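Pasting as-is:
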Amino acid sequence: MWGDEQGEPAGGARRRATIHDVARLAGVSRQTVSRAVNDKGEIDPGTKERVLEAARLLDYRPSRFARGLVRKGTVTVGLVIPDLMNPFFPEVAAGVLEAAEQRGWQVVVWDSRTDEAREREALDVLSHQADAVVGYFRNEDDVLARRLGGVPLVLLERGPQQTRFAAVGIDAAVGVEQGIAHLVRAGHRRIGMLDGDRKGVVGPRREAFLVEVRRHGLSVDDGWVVVCPEHSVAGGEAGMGQLLGVRPEVTAVFGFNDLIAVGAMRAARRGGRRVPDDLAVLGFDGLSLGELVEPALTTLHIDKRRLGRLAVEQVARLRAGEAPLSGADAWVLPELVVRASA
């Protein structure tokens, strides 16, 4: 079995056939393929049959976008979310749905379950069913581009400088600067982090954390960072237990997200530590859940609905042939919300 030119393993998803492939197999131009598959006139019946047979052999399915079905009131946006059980993402989806409804668009939602293979499957499907795609993707740009077939893509939580596609980012550095400064003002010098990044990379939240602890002259390095197995309360509990094992002197912890931070509080209490007296806890997301736990969670709040609305604005610009939002206009800035946990 062969793999495709991106080096995907044999037995993986086959590259989607393009109009170029059909034209090459049928020995005609792309324009002739377009006329044949869209049942346009001015084409010889024998040529049309040859093109359609090539399309059948290659399983070629032109996207709605390529077929010119983009009409006012019929726009479909595909939204790819990594984890619908995480309360952060339904709020982002709500922003997308609200903004799309205002434009008379419809939205199709796909849960990728933070799985790169399911991300690719989503693009294989949505490139035929949607006029644009918005979402969270772990796959690299080249992989995404190959599966889009020309359908516009807007990436969420990647800064405009981090991808060649249109994007809407979260400025982690701005938020973490506020959060670490708050902890330092409260007298904390031994601050740990429960990270959620995977694949061995240092993501923007951990990068910002390490920058800020150095800027404040703290004796904190990567040894004070524990990667949580899941972006969940259970993941935060496990990560906090590990951090307390290697750094029992820790007096404050910054959680990658609010769910991990809540898990950290549970693990701290189970270990006999009071929050915030013995251990201050800072989250990142601003979930409503943070107001319900005891003590209420201090967090870096993100306007998640605005994130979704900006993504739809990016789609509208791409469809209109305009340059996508960039610079400060394409970023959502976290804001520190001080409650009882830190």
